[in-house]
Specification:
Length: 104
């Protein structure tokens, strides 16, 4: 009787990671790069010098890369969503009367 060999996918519930970027930060970087491409096209069509267009796009692209990688390293996979949810919570709950706690 022959034994069957099954390939087991061990990364089923793991989040997507690409060169150190985790989860949603890949999409942030992709959106930023598309925005930079559009910015370059607009600058080029309006008649700005090609080298100035390249300096602007490369400078903002470098800033975009460092900013997204810093966010990914600081907050991790779900940390930025947790930080946004934490901002929605009230700092203090005040109750100036006892009516809430007395049965009527």
């Amino acid at each position: 009787m022959a034994n069957s060999i099954y390939n087991i996918n061990k990364g089923v519930n793991k989040s997507i990671e690409f060169r150190g970027l985790k989860a949603q930060y890949i999409w942030y970087l992709a959106g930023g790069l598309i925005g930079l491409l559009i910015l370059f096209a607009i600058l080029y069509v309006t008649g700005v010098n090609t080298y100035i267009c390249l300096m602007i796009v490369l400078g903002t692209g470098g800033f975009l890369f460092t900013w997204v990688y810093r966010l990914s390293n600081k907050y991790g996979e779900h940390g930025m969503m947790k930080k946004a949810a934490q901002r929605m919570l009230p700092h203090v709950i005040r109750c100036n009367s006892r009516k809430q706690f007395i049965k009527q």
